[in-house]
Amino acid sequence: HEGLVATVKEAGRSIHEIPREE
Amino acid sequence: RALGYVREFTRHSSDVLGNLNELRLRGILTDVTLLVGGQPLRAHKAVLIACSGFFYSIFRGRAGVGVDVLSLPGGPEAGGFAPLLDFMYTSRLRLSPATAPAVLAAATYLQMDHVVQACHRFIQASYE
Asked: Closest Cα of chain A to B12: distance in Å?
């Protein structure tokens, strides 16, 4: 249908990981 | 037929929270010091105001911008504040029979009603 937007799930990490402090 | 796609990253909120917690632990962009019984706890106002009705009422106005040190009550509530701060940044609330009363008192003070209810349920269950 016109205008239909499908939602796709992304299960992986979404952003960079701030390194943990040593 | 789909014209477009929305890609929903299902773990995004927890990834953001995890990074905010790391920023807190490293003191990056923290903008307020909570003094609890003389002990300093650094935090981000934006996280505090998002999690607590008390902090919302303190920081929401223009006057809140200038607040960089805030004293919280000592005494029996004091031991409950650090676990609550950890909860705000991790979504995990650490409770034991020994600490639950202090966490309950601190959560009541900070107007974190859902945590208050969880503490009540925990204490009730530990009696039974």
From this structure: 5
**What SS3 state is found at B95?**
coil
Residue in B5, B19, B25 closest to A15 by CB: B19
As beta bridge partners, residue A9 has B8
User: B27 at the A interface (CB within 8 A)?
Assistant: no
Token pair in block for residue B122: 């925990």
- Which of B62, B120, B119, B75 lies closest to B94 in space, CA to CA? B119
User: Cβ A5–B10 below 8 Å, yes or no?
Assistant: no
Is there a contact between B118 and B99 (Cβ–Cβ < 8 Å)?
Answer: no
Model confidence pLDDT, tens digit, residues B14-36 = 999 999 999 999 999 999 999 99
Whether residue B23 and residue A18 make contact (CB cut-off 8 A), yes or no, is yes
pLDDT in tens, A1-22: 556 889 999 999 999 999 887 6
Q: Which pair of tokens denotes residue B84? A: 């609550």
How many angstroms separate the first and last alpha carbons of chain A? 53
